[in-house]
Design goal:
The protein has a single domain, classed as Beta-lactamase (3-Layer(aba) Sandwich), CATH 3.40.710.10. Helix content is 34%, strand content 16%. The chain contains 13 helices and 15 strands.
Length: 364
């Protein structure tokens, strides 16, 4: 049932048509879609196949709603932002704490010494965006590489999207808790929410449920079971910016937790005040409205759902999550649009098309 609408079959068919068109046009080989409202699932569907014909998979995969996808930058909100919020609640970190308080090497000049956790969460640190994996390998060396970068602008004066800030946040989680972000998030976030299929570095025993990503000859063909992002791969698959794998069913639980102000099925993993702080506009530079970790009111992929009450995040591999807080409506779209190449057709119109249908139904 789609939102209690009298033309449910037609609406579901329109949503299916968007994804079927994407597959026909080679945007992605397969996908999973979940839509929920007021804590209820109104659509949860799987489409297509794991990879185009002719590509060898280490483990054959049948696409279902239990298929794990590489979330890419959804890691930033599903794991890192929520973990940092928990640490703030526990008094282990503060938004105003400087990075240098945890990583002294970062204070190589006065401007870097002033960068706070808030700057990292809002992409206003001034750090550049670049791949470090060719020059650095391993957690310690990657962290040194991040610390050595020259700032593009004075902290807090501009918005510039970068993974490097979230690499630092992942390191701060370890320094503050003595647990890798994979361990901390698994124990204090995913386990309470019963997100049993959400993890970093999925074991080979379940690769038959893990969708592949890009065909990369120097990595042995289609990447499957290992993180696609090169910086996260150089960090052994565990990082604050990327590396998380999950299913559409697990992300349905996560979405309902956010819309439930930190609670799901009677279990609380975050205080309502933490959720509100994430959702609250923190900056607005040149139309980039940003909360803590989350993007706000971004029409490019939120379509007609885009407004001050809508938050979301996209992932490079073809993933996205959009939540409209006023209508308690959410959708999660997981695809492997980088399979077999990152240079395929643009996925944005398909994300936007789903959002437009849902906005129409809600009267947004």
């Amino acid at each position: 049932m789609i939102l209690g609408h009298q033309n449910d079959a037609d609406i579901s068919g329109r949503l299916d048509a968007i994804l079927n068109k994407g597959m026909q046009e080679g945007v992605f080989p397969g996908a999973t879609l979940w839509i929920g409202r007021h804590g209820e699932t109104i659509k949860c569907s799987a489409y297509g196949k794991a990879a185009p014909d002719g590509y060898h998979l280490q483990r054959p995969v049948t696409i279902t709603t239990k298929t794990l996808y590489d979330l890419a930058s959804l890691t930033k909100v599903v794991a890192t932002t929520c973990v940092i919020a928990q640490l703030i609640e526990k008094g282990l970190v503060r938004l105003t704490d400087t990075v240098a308080q945890f990583i002294p090497l970062f204070a190589s000049d006065q401007q870097k010494a002033s960068i706070t956790i808030w700057h990292l969460l809002t992409h206003t640190s001034g750090l550049p965006s670049l791949l470090l994996h060719k020059e650095y390998q391993g957690k310690d060396n990657i962290l040194k590489g991040v610390c050595q970068q020259t700032l593009l602008f004075s902290p807090g004066t501009r918005y510039f999207y970068t993974d490097l800030g979230f690499i630092l946040l992942g390191a701060i989680v370890y320094i503050a808790t003595s647990l890798e972000i994979s361990e901390y998030a698994g124990k204090y976030l995913f386990a309470p929410l019963e997100m049993k299929d959400t993890m970093f570095n999925p074991p080979e025993t379940i690769w038959n449920r893990v969708a592949p990503t890009e065909y990369v000859p120097w990595r042995g063909g289609l990447v499957q079971g290992h993180v696609h992002d090169e910086n996260a791969w150089a960090l052994d698959g565990v990082a604050g910016h990327a590396g998380l794998f999950s299913t559409v069913e697990d992300l349905a639980k996560f979405s309902n937790m956010i819309l439930g102000c930190g609670e799901l099925a009677g279990k609380s993993v975050l205080e309502a005040s933490s959720i509100f702080e994430m959702m609250k506009p923190q900056i607005n530079f040149e139309g980039n409205l940003q909360g803590l970790g989350w993007m706000i009111n971004t029409p490019s992929y939120m379509g007609s759902l885009a407004n001050i009450d809508t938050i979301g995040r996209t992932g490079f591999t073809g993933t996205s999550i959009v939540l409209n807080l006023r209508h308690r409506l959410a959708f999660v779209l997981l695809t492997n649009r980088v399979c077999p190449t990152r240079n395929g057709p643009d996925i944005t119109p398909y994300r936007r098309g789903i959002a437009d249908i849902l906005a129409e139904l809600c009267g947004v």
